Amino acid sequence: MEKRLLLAVVMMTAAILLTNVLFPPPRPSTQASADSAAVVAPSDAVAPLPGALVNVAAGSTMAAPADSVVIVSDLYRYVISTRGGAVLRAELLGFPSYSREGETVQLVPDGTRDFLSHRLAIGNDTVQLAALPFIADKRELAVGQTTGSRTVDLSYTDPSGFGVTMRYSFDPATYLISVAGQVQGLGGRSASLLTKLGQGMEVHEHPDHHSERELAYVTRASGDIDRVAFRSVEESAALAEPFEWVAIKDKFFVTAVVAGADSPLHSAIIQDVPDVSRAFGGDTVPLPQVAVTSVLPVEADGSFAFQSYVGPQDYELLQQVGLDLEEVTPYGYRWLQPFIRPLAAAVLWVLNTLHGALGIAYGWVLVIFGVMMRIVLWPLNAKAMRAQMKNMGTQPLLQEIRDKYKNDPEKQKEAMLALYKEHGFNPFAGCLPMLVPMPVLITLFFVFQNTIAFRGAEFLWLPDLSLRDPFYILPLVMIVSMFALQWVSTHLSGIEQNAQMKMMMYMMPIVMGFIFFVLPAGLNLYYAVTQVASVPQQILIALERKKATEEMKRNNAAKAGGGAAGGAGARKKKSKK
User: Fold this and answer.
1) The predicted structure's pLDDT at residue 107
2) Cβ atoms of 285 and 332 closer than 8 Å
3) Average pLDDT over the chain, rounded to an integer
4) Alpha-carbon distance values, 446 to 136, 367, 462, 568 (Å)
5) What span, in angstroms and rounded, lies between the C-alpha atoms of 311 and 105?
6) Is beta strand 176-184 parallel, antiparallel or unpaired with respect to 303-312?
7) Which of 314, 438, 527, 549 has the most CB atoms within 10 Å of its CB?
8) How far apart are CA 493 and CA 501, in angstroms?
9) Is residue 220 a contact partner of residue 265, using CB atoms and an 8 Å limit?
10) For residue 435, how many other CB atoms are within 10 A of its CB?
């Protein structure tokens, strides 16, 4: 779909120029093979783990009861296991699932028991917290606006004195989970907390979203954000950098471990996992799998703290977390991001402000936004239209010069330069103002492609603004409106069309329609509204140009008449002599 956008930009730019002038993200640089916690936890020549934990460190599972804690708010329903606090279910109640009719999005793949699971690397040993019988202080937790943030405590204590406590805090207004923990009985050993983010997400998108292509892990280190698509990972690696956060994402949702800049993650472990296939919509969807684990050093006093975000890629909510977490999904290609990111932030702010202030559906927000953009760009578009019509108005005069001096290129050139000077002809005058709004259109393409607010948003006959128009009404409206605008600019202005102008009038709408037929309905809606909203301006400019063209014809006729009268008078005087 991005290729279609680039094709659209290239073709539109070429068309404008020809009309007026005859016409992977790099992989992290620091990599090493990683297959054990020894990479991330230094060895300590101290006493071994308490006897009760030796089997756990060796990998065997103790008889821990598989209880769970259910946390419910208006936004989410999380289910956390008492076996180390792993997330068993993460249901996002405001987002319908496309894979399971009547259900909401559930991010944890079926059967997964290691989604946001934890283990401790202590010296050369690893303690699987999922094997320890933690005790929860409650089994159900309701989080709401009246309750504010609420907590769940999980605790384990070994007879030898070794113990782990973790306090989970849930906010009713965000998808952010704050975790504060304490490890007891380390006996001077250094330790690290390893949190596995999982190795992918459950299938929950419409096939047209192609969410599996967007699966990636994302890291932020010293302000630099790196994104690596799952499908491009070919080997396991340890990324030995201090990360502020590590995340896995698909098209619309994200799971992240956020440590912050003051006590960042020590490193991250990336493990290539064989792909899986899921049946969906009658087709088998291949899902690349990559196990991502963050590594957080435990403080000398045994304390640790971090946050997990498990939810939608809502720009404002991610922005509240800080540390540029809202940049987990880029808007545009890497080389475009410095230009598009500020524009995308501004566009999203306007859209969300209109939606919140007016309390209307996002479809109407796009209609209003399209009209607003047409008003804002009115002076620029007017300048471009006037320049184009002026240039088109000189085409017949240019053709006369070509015919008159077709055998004398030097005089033809001199006559054209004189005509350009007389009429203020500039082949780029109509081109450049039309290219200025291009960054806005490109930004809107990426915004509409990845803005979760449009996912599932209905409007009139459209079931989802993030998907294509099922009846292709909007692309057809856009084609008709483009043709109408071109017709108005030529016929109503009284400008004589040459073959090139006729070709552009018919071909440009067809080319654009071909591109827009598969784009999201939200983008089609916006563009169709801007096209229709520009009709009044096009009519005004066309009438203005018609008046100027008629005046120019009268002046040319007067000049021609004066010249003829002067010539007749001279001949009469000569005959008398």
Assistant:
1) 94
2) no
3) 78
4) 44, 18, 20, 68
5) 10
6) antiparallel
7) 527
8) 14
9) no
10) 15
∠ at Cα 561 (557, 567), nearest 5°?
A: 150
If phi > 0 it is left, if psi is from -120 to 50 it is alpha, else beta; for residue 492 that is alpha
Distance CA 131, CA 63 (A): 7
Q: In this structure, are residues 169 and 150 in contact, taking their beta carbons and an 8 Å threshold?
A: yes
* CATH numeric code, 61-328: 2.70.98.90
Single-letter code of the amino acid located at 199: Q
pLDDT digits (tens, 9 = 90+) for 70-106: 999 999 999 999 988 999 999 999 999 988 888 999 9
Phi/psi for 158 (5° steps) reads -90, 150
Ramachandran sector of residue 113 (left: φ over 0; alpha: ψ -120 to 50; beta: rest): alpha
CA pair distance 60, 54, nearest whole angstrom: 9
| Digit-coded pLDDT (tens) for 372-403 | 888 887 777 676 666 666 666 566 676 777 77
Q: Measured between alpha carbons, how far is 167 from 149 in angstroms, rounded to an integer?
A: 12
- Calculated CA dihedral for residues 254, 68, 170, 131, nearest 10 degrees: -70
The CA distance from 418 to 449, in Å, is 49
Which H/E stretch holds residue 21? Answer: none
What the block records as the tokens of 456 is 């599932």
Indicate if the pLDDT at residue 65 is higher than 80: no
Cβ pair 222, 242 in contact under 8 A: yes
Alpha carbon distance 497, 511 (integer Å): 20
Tokens of 502: 């006729």
Exposed (0-12), middle (13-18) or buried (19+): which is 260, by Cβ within 10 Å? middle
Beta strands, E only, 200-282: 216-221, 224-229, 237-239, 245-249, 253-258, 267-280
Integer angstrom CA distances of residue 91 from 103, 112, 253, 325: 9, 14, 12, 21
Residue for token digits 């009044």? 536
Say which residue, 565 or 421, is predicted with more confidence. 421
CB 266 within 8 A of CB 297: yes
User: What are the pLDDT digits (tens) for 146-184?
Assistant: 888 999 999 999 888 899 999 999 999 999 999 999 999
How far apart are alpha carbons 12 and 18 in whole angstroms? 10
Note the pLDDT tens digit of each residue in 277-333. 776 666 777 788 889 999 999 999 999 999 999 999 998 899 999 888 998 887 766
**Which residues, at least 6 apart from 342, have a Cβ–Cβ distance to it below 8 Å?**
none
Q: Range(s) for CATH 2.70.98.90 in the chain? A: 61-328
| pLDDT higher than 80, residue 455 | yes
